[in-house]
Amino acid sequence: MKLCLVTAFPPSRAGLNEYGFHLACELRQHPLLSLTILADEVEEPCEELDGFDIVRCWSFNKLSNPVNLSRRIRELKPDVVWFNLGFASFGDKPLPAFAGLAIPALTRIRGVYTHVTLHQLMETVNLDDAGVRFPLLYKIAGSVATRIVLMSNSISVLMPAYRRTLREKYRGEYIHVRAHGIFSGTPEYPDFSRRNNPTQRILAFGKWGTYKRLEQLIDAFEIVSQRMPDAKLIISGSNHPKAPGYVESIAEKYRDNSRIEFTGYVAEETIPELFGSATMVVMPYTSSAGASGVAHLAAEYGVPMITSNIRDFRDLAEHEGLAILFFETGNTQELADRMTYVLERPELQQEMAEMNFSAALRMTMPQIIRQYLRSFDLHQRAKALEPLSRFRRLPHWVPRRSALARALSPRTVPWL
User: Fold this and answer.
1) Angle, CA of 48, 204 and 337, to the nearest 5°
2) Which of 36, 91, 398, 405 fits a disulfide with 97 by CB distance 3.0 to 4.6 angstroms?
3) Superfamily (CATH H level) for 2-177
4) Shared fold status for 2-177 and 192-351
5) What sign has the CA pseudo-torsion 109, 110, 111, 117?
6) 332-343 and 346-361 helices, crossing angle to 10°
């Protein structure tokens, strides 16, 4: 099978680049699969990652993306084109973003099987948090864009509620629910000796400045630090593209507080140490933009979670069996109380950690990729059998009818 994966890809830092990287890492393990990554262009020339066939043929906020991607797909002649998308994958300006979301439909029109993994819905995005100036116009455009994306052959969403919305509101078909998954194939059991030794490390991780903000978390930590002298707050990650300079301004404000540490951007190879030594992960978001990658990292490393009480986190806890403590969104005192409650109870920390790690074992990346590839393979087999359908219209008395059918039937070999 020849597959093209359309995604942001490292060293690009665009949205979903980490997820695209881990998809590609697992896909290249299959010897009978030919993988080409149609990735976003980076601003400065750089050395590509070893072991990947990468074609950089589209750019953030460029109206030419549909033309450029369509040309490459036509040249490569893949059996399947898989899009790893959010609503802002191709741009944060209306026209480039809208044009990019039309590419899966255009690809299908050209006769190529097209699958989209859609990481969020417009209905779940808080447009005020996103800094949208004309929310009504965005809602209308988002509804139209969703209908265009649904013109793909099939779609995967990462939350059951998203499938219900697409089925009930948009009358969408061929929509699958697949777990976000963790990025490891063989996660290691948490080493609890690294935690609370010598300090209790409260970790906040993400791209900050829009719906992920730090003011409430820091105010809550000030309350916690009065009760828990060994607690330390670790703030990791960089600015959201729409909030340049945000993390730096917060870091400058608290530069004299030795109990608050800002690590900045976290490289892939340092993530195990960051999460493996964390006592808990806190996600004080005001809204959500899909299945949380940070929550799945916490599950992979067996770390307790405290999150805002918003719908997507509740769905994650129920659907994937994650151990999450919730606090009322915007309630600083309740957040501080939840953090203190966990910090004071080592047995609860271990119980939540083991529950999250158990959930992670049920959704490793190899398991997730096998679900996708089985679906693609079934389509390929069905397509190969299409020529046989003409024989159904032939009368049974036609000589050699069975022999003709056998001669034209595909010789398939299981590869999964």
Assistant:
1) 165
2) 91
3) Glycogen Phosphorylase B; (3.40.50.2000)
4) yes
5) negative
6) 90
The 10s digit of each residue's pLDDT in 285-328 is 988 767 888 999 999 999 999 999 998 899 989 999 999 999 99
- % of the chain exceeding 70 in pLDDT: 89
Instruction: In whole angstroms, give the CA distance from residue 406 to residue 411.
Output: 10
CA geometry: angle 351, 354, 360, nearest 5 deg: 145
In tens, the pLDDT along 331-347 reads: 999 999 999 999 999 99
- Distance CA(65)–CA(103), nearest Å, equals 8
Q: Identify each DSSP E strand in 42-135 by its residue range.
A: 54-58, 80-85, 113-118
292 backbone dihedrals φ, ψ, rounded to 5°: -75, 125
The residue extents of the domains of the chain are 2-177, 192-351
Residue of 208, 215, 194 whose CA lies nearest to 279: 194
Neighbours of 300 (CB within 10 A): 27
**Taking the model in full, what pTM does it have?**
0.84
Q: How many CB atoms lie within 10 A of CB 299?
A: 33
How far is CA 26 from each of CA 21, 29, 121, 299, 307, rounded to the nearest angstrom? Answer: 9, 5, 26, 19, 30
